Amino acid sequence: MISEPAKRHHDSSAVSVIGLGLMGRALAETFLRAGHATTVWNRTAVKAEPLVAQGATLAGSVDDAVAASPLVVVCLTGYDAVHELLGSLDLNGRVLVNLTSGTSEQARTAAEWATGQGAAYLDGAILAAPQGIGTADAVVLYSGPRAAFDAHEPVLKSLTDATLHLGDDHVLSSLHDAAILGLMWGILNGFLHGAALLGAAGVNATAFAELAKVSIGTVADWVPGYAQQIDDGVYPAPDSTIGTHLAAMEHLVHESEALGVDAGQPRFYKALADRAVAEGREDDGYAALIEQFRKP
Ligand SMILES: NC(=O)c1ccc[n+]([C@@H]2O[C@H](COP(=O)([O-])OP(=O)(O)OC[C@H]3O[C@@H](n4cnc5c(N)ncnc54)[C@H](OP(=O)(O)O)[C@@H]3O)[C@@H](O)[C@H]2O)c1
C-alpha cells in the first residue's frame, strides 16, 4: 500500500522507518509485529516489499514518510546519508530518532540541524545485530530530550525491553556505543591473541573457548570494584599491583615473540604499565592505568 502525500496516522503509536537496510528492515518488522502502524521508505524501494506484505505502508516519498507518523526512525549507512536525505525537510512536530551509527560530534551536529528543522531529536545507538532486534539480546541507547523519549518509550520498547535513555545530552548514546565497541574489541582481541598463542602449541581454539569464557566472567566481576576506584581516584591493590602485572606482561611479550605471534597487543599493555611505574604507581592497583588512558 502506498501512502497518499502527507497522509497522517492519527494513532500516536504510529511510526515511520526510513532506511530499510539489514537493520532498518529488522526495526520495521519488529514495530509491525508489535502492532504499530508502520510506514516505511527506502531509496531502493524493492527492499520494502516484504514489509508491505506484512502490513507496512510504503510512503511515496521520504517527505511522506516523515509526514505520516509522529515518530520517525532513521537508520542509514552514515550521518552524511541522513543529512543528504533529510537535510532540507520540514520536521516540525516530529520526534526524529536517528539510529545510524556515528561519532558524538556527528550526533551533536545532527541534533542542531534537526532541532533547527523543528524536530525533537533523539540520537540512538543499537547494540545488537539485526537478528537480535525484538529479543532480550538487544540493547538500544538513546540520548536527547527526556520528554521526547518518554512520549514514545512504549513504541521504542517494542524493539527491546533494554531501551535506555542516557540523558539529555545528545552525545551520550554514541559515546556509550564507542565505549562498548572498544570493550568488545578488547575482549575479542585478547581471545584471538590467546588462541594464536595456544594454536602455536597445537591447541585448537575450541579447546580454549571454555576456559576463555570462565576467565572473561571472572574479569567482568572485577569491573564494579575498579569503577569505584576510578570514581574515587584512589587505587588500592588488595589483589595485585601494577608492578606484578608488569612482570606478567613482560612474559606475555616474550612468549608471543618466541612463538611468532603478533606481540603488538601485549607491548601496548606493557607500555601503559611502564608509564605508570615511571610515575611511581608500581604499588597501585590495576585501575590506576586509567590515568595513562587519560593522557595519550
Ligand atoms: N547491521 C548491524 O549489525 C548493525 C548493528 C548496529 C548498528 N548498525 C547501524 O545501523 C546502520 C544501518 O546498518 P545496516 O546494517 O542496515 O546497513 P545496510 O544494510 O548497508 O543499509 C544501509 C541503508 O542506508 C541507505 N542509504 C545509504 N546511503 C543512502 C543515501 N545517500 N540516501 C538514502 N539512503 C541511503 C541504504 O539504502 P539502499 O537500500 O537504497 O542502498 C540502506 O537502506 C549503520 O549505521 C550501522 O552501523 C548496524
Secondary structure topology:
Blueprint: E1 2-3, E2 15-18, H1 22-33, E3 38-41, H2 49-53, E4 57-59, H3 62-68, E5 71-74, H4 79-86, E6 95-98, H5 104-116, E7 120-127, E8 139-143, H6 146-156, E9 163-165, H7 172-199, H8 205-232, H9 242-259, H10 264-278, H11 290-293
Parallel strand pairs: 1-4, 2-3, 2-5, 3-4, 5-6, 6-7, 8-9
Antiparallel strand pairs: 7-8
Helix pairs in contact: 7-8, 9-10
NADP nicotinamide-adenine-dinucleotide phosphate binds next to helix 1 and helix 4.
Structure description:
Residues 1-6 have low confidence and may be disordered. With 296 residues, the chain is an alpha/beta fold. It is 50% helix and 12% strand. The chain has 2 domains: 4-168, Rossmann fold, CATH 3.40.50; 200-293, N-(1-d-carboxylethyl)-l-norvaline Dehydrogenase, domain 2 (Orthogonal Bundle). The protein contains 11 helices and 9 strands. The protein has helices at 22-33, 49-53, 62-68, 79-86, 104-116, 146-156, 172-199, 205-232, 242-259, 264-278, 290-293; strands at 2-3, 15-18, 38-41, 57-59, 71-74, 95-98, 120-127, 139-143, 163-165. NADP nicotinamide-adenine-dinucleotide phosphate binds at residues 19-24, 42-44, 47, 75-77, 81, 84-85, 100-101, 126, 129-130.
Summary, kept brief:
This protein has about 300 residues and is α/β, with parallel strands linked by helices. The protein contains eleven helices and nine strands. It folds into two domains: about 5-170, 3-Layer(aba) Sandwich (Rossmann fold); about 200-295, N-(1-d-carboxylethyl)-l-norvaline Dehydrogenase, domain 2, CATH 1.10.1040.
